[in-house]
Structure formats: structure tokens, C-alpha cells
Amino acid sequence: MKLTVHQCAYLSPLFFALMIAGCGKQPEQTQTAEVVRPVQIYKVKEASSQQSWTFPATISAFKSTELAFNSGGKLTSFNITKGQEVKKGQLLASIDDRDFQLKLNSANANFQTAKLSYERGKKLVKKNIISRSDFDTLESQFKVAESQYDSAKKALKDTKIYAPYDGLIASKQAANHDNVGAGQTVLSLIAAGKFSADFDIPPARLNYINQHHPDGIYVVFKQFDGAKAKADFKEISLLPSKSSQSYQVTMSFTPPKNVVVLPGMSAEVRMDNKLDAKQLDLLIPTKSVISVGDDKFVWKVDPKTMTTVKTPVDIKPGIGEFVAVKSGVHTGDQIITSGASYAVEGMKVSIWQPK
């Protein structure tokens, strides 16, 4: 179809207007969606003031010693019995000491002779009657004889075993008139009057070992009508059990009156958490604390804006799933636990809910 000159003149203004309108149209703006990261949240709270926990425990000796002779020989006095109570310094066992006595007599004679020669030599060397070299020989012989004499005295003394402390005879590994070797254990002694209770504790309860109240931990004997004894912290293994991931703790205690306690008995360790409001700690998960050098901080979440806030904290020494906080957080604060290491200031987050 061909257009006439008049038709082209008529369409030109319309075409020009459409071109102007098309050029003036602005492109649509593309909006970027805000990134919201899901995180796990822990709400800070005080340690409970009315909780108690019990753990099965095994009684062990607070102190035990295996006793042996430094030299071998025939037992000539070994009349103690298992379970016998003994006092510190009491004679427990002895071996035939006749050969040791003869060696001591010989060593003493040599020592006295060497001593006499040495004393005479000191006078002679001052008068230049003997040379300095001859005197040095006399002095050396005296020191050797003195050392041999001291060794012989000790060897004779070691033919007897005395109780190193008040205790009970736990076991005997020999009988009277037996020949025993040097270093061979002949008896075991345990301390009297004090015992240990060994038990496993999960990480979440480790912070309650150091109680503010000294009466917070007891060893309880159900087989003796619930008799209990106050327990004191002794030691803790810092390596967890591979099977249960718990830590072995040992408490020491003095048995209750009229209760016979022996190693191997079963008992319970009861931990009472009875603290007043001023003594309660704020607890937060250990994994929520980020360490950079000596500085420690957590990521708080502002509940209104759901954004992160970096917050320095001062925590108390401890191990386990939770740590006590001195400052930096307050009851009710929300802090990030899972995902804390990836957080940045002002990051938008949402609370992750496990399905």
C-alpha cells in the first residue's frame, strides 16, 4: 500500500509523538530481597535455686600404699591380719636381718679405721710430714668408708616395714617365713577415717561442683538408712569418657558415725543446689561464647528488630556445656548459640525451629 504526500504529512506528527513517549518511559526498578539467616537462640536465665541431682558412686580409699622391702629375704615377723587397724610407726613386717647386721659391723669397722687415719693425716699434713697427695688419698678412703657405713645402716633399717600413717591393712601378698624379693609388695595399707567417692558427671552439671554453700554435696548410703556425709571436692578428670562423654569426679568424705565404710561399696553422690537470689549465677551455653585473643563476646538478638548485637562478656572459669557469666548479659536476653561464629553486626535473623 502506498501513502500519498498528504497522508504522510498527517501521520508524521502522530509518529513523532509516539517516539517521544517511548523514549521518556523509565525502566522498572528491581528490588533485592533482604537476607534473613535462621539461628538457634538461647534465653539467658539464672541457675535454679531448688534443684538436686544424684549420681551412682563407688567408694575407694582416700589414700593407699603398697609396701615392700628394698632388699630380699625371709619374713621373720609378719603377724598382722587383713582389716587390722594400725598406727603410724607401728612395726608391720620384718625379714631376717642377720646378714645385714654382719655387713653393718664390717662397714663400721672399716669406717672407724678410715676415720682414725684421716684425723691423724690432718695433723701430719699440717706439719708437712706427709704430702698433700697422701692426705687426699686418706680423705677419699674416709669418705668411701663413711658412705658404705651409711648404706649398711640404711639396709639394716630397711629390713623392717613400719606403718607410714594410721590406717587399715587392706591386703597381704605374703605369709610369715616366705622368701620375698626386693621391691615385692607384701601388704597394702589404706588410710583410716577418710574415703573417696568416685562418680561420673555430665558436662551440664560441672558448674555445680564449686558450690557457694559448703554443705551442697553429700555421699549418701541407702543401705544404711540413708546415712550421709558431707563431701569435699578432691579431683576431676579433664578427659571425658569415650562411651558416655561424662567426666569422672572424686569427692572425699569422713564416714558417718556408726557406719562401716570400705572400698568397693556403692553409694550415691547428691548435689543440692540451694542458693539465695544474690548468689545465683547467670548461665549461658559454652558454644555461644566467641573468643578473640583474651576478649570474649556473644551475639545478642534484639527481639524488636531481630538483628544481631555484638556484646562483650566476662565469664567465670569452668568447663562443661554451660558457663557462668559475671557481666555482659541479663536475665531474659536472647543470644545466638548455633551460628554464632558466622554472625556479623546488625545481621537480620530468624529463630530456627526444629521440625
TrEMBL record:
Q: Name one Pfam family in it.
A: BSH_RND
Compartmental location = Cell envelope
Q: Where is the Multidrug resistance protein MdtA-like barrel-sandwich hybrid domain?
A: 72-186
**PROSITE patterns xrefs:** PROKAR_LIPOPROTEIN
Start and end residues of each Multidrug resistance protein MdtA-like alpha-helical hairpin domain: 101-161
Question: Boundaries of each Multidrug resistance protein MdtA-like C-terminal permuted SH3 domain copy?
Answer: 282-341
Q: Name one GO cellular component term.
A: efflux pump complex
Name the principal localization, coarsely classed: other
Cited InterPro entries: MdtA-like_BSH (IPR058625), MdtA-like_C (IPR058627), MdtA-like_HH (IPR058624), RND_pump_MFP (IPR006143)
Q: Name one GO molecular function term.
A: efflux transmembrane transporter activity
Family membership noted in the UniProt record: Belongs to the membrane fusion protein (MFP) (TC 8.A.1) family.
Q: What is this protein called?
A: Efflux RND transporter periplasmic adaptor subunit
Source organism phylogeny: Bacteria, Pseudomonadati, Pseudomonadota, Gammaproteobacteria, Alteromonadales
